[in-house]
Amino acid sequence: MAFLAAALDRVKPSATIAVSQKARDLKAQGRDVISLGAGEPDFDTPDNIKAAAIDAINRGETKYTPVAGIPQLREAISKKFKRENGLDYTPAQTIVGTGGKQILFNAFMATLNPGDEVIVPAPYWVSYPEMVALCGGTTVYVEATLENDFKLTPEALEKAITPKTKWFLFNSPSNPSGAAYSHAELKALTDVLMRHPHVWVLTDDMYEHLVYGDFTFATPAQVEPALYERTLTMNGVSKAYAMTGWRIGYAGGPLNLIKAMDMIQGQQTSGACSIAQWAALEALNGPQDFIPQSRVAFEKRRDLVVSMLNQANGLKCPTPQGAFYVYPSVQALIGTKTEAGKTIETDADFVTELLDAEGVAVVHGSAFGLGPNFRLSYAESDEKLEDACGRIQRFCASLRR
Are the CB atoms for 95 and 261 separated by under 8 Å? Predict the structure, then answer.
């Protein structure tokens, strides 16, 4: 359609949203469907946060806010970065957006010119390359394979950097793999970046608080302070506080970049929802006991899912260190046939046939840039996860050569 912008030819719809919508459609038709495609905690937002939002409404905090966020929230973000990450960002060096997506999008819009390259480890969150494309940049994919626990090696990063590289986009713990980088693994990557002063770092720390066992989270500018002046540290309240629908993301970074993002946002959406900002303020400043409680629940679910999937015929499921996803390989099942005689040629075939046969919705790994795998979100009840994994075991057992 000639009327539409040519930029739309460079992007495709979100696979995760598409899977979730297909599951909703099947449920509406009366199908028994367990949807494990969305990255959304099943817990409710903590009561103290909801109460803060209600109090804000009752106080009349319902007007436009400053574009970059209410001063109280920007102050809380500054303190959060210092308290939890050892990063000194003044409130003026912070910005609040409508979810982490807007933070990332505005950063790219403020910095990318045609021909600029953004290095993205694969597997990656489905929206990263689409944002880069919409903002006129070029994504350079670097595989982080199962053999390396889905983590990028310093050698692969070094090889991917060119004179056109503008950003290295880094996500730990990872969506979709759950891979998390230790301090030492991060230091090996930042050592590479120190040799290339033209490369900036955009770090997506959205799953910071969802790490398991004795793993300790770290972020690039914390590991290598010399990267501070060329790092944008992004985070948000969506995952840690079960606030996905509140749509609040935030970032800290160099003042000139924050000002540029502020200007773009001022002509785009202006400030994020006032009520959601007051709720986010309570999330950051209020009691933090929800986080360890949810972490314990997620770790238990992870262990359940990993155990059951590794008992399924043909699946290989590594144990992730963070987030709430597993990313099992279906390599051993490629070429098998369903009971109806359909051949599983790709991971997309696998998830399609799984949904049709057993009513379990997951996302094919090729949508995240690395297959044949699938992403399963274990942000669901133990009962649903056990049921879903049992169905997956049954489906895998039904496949034949």
Answer: yes
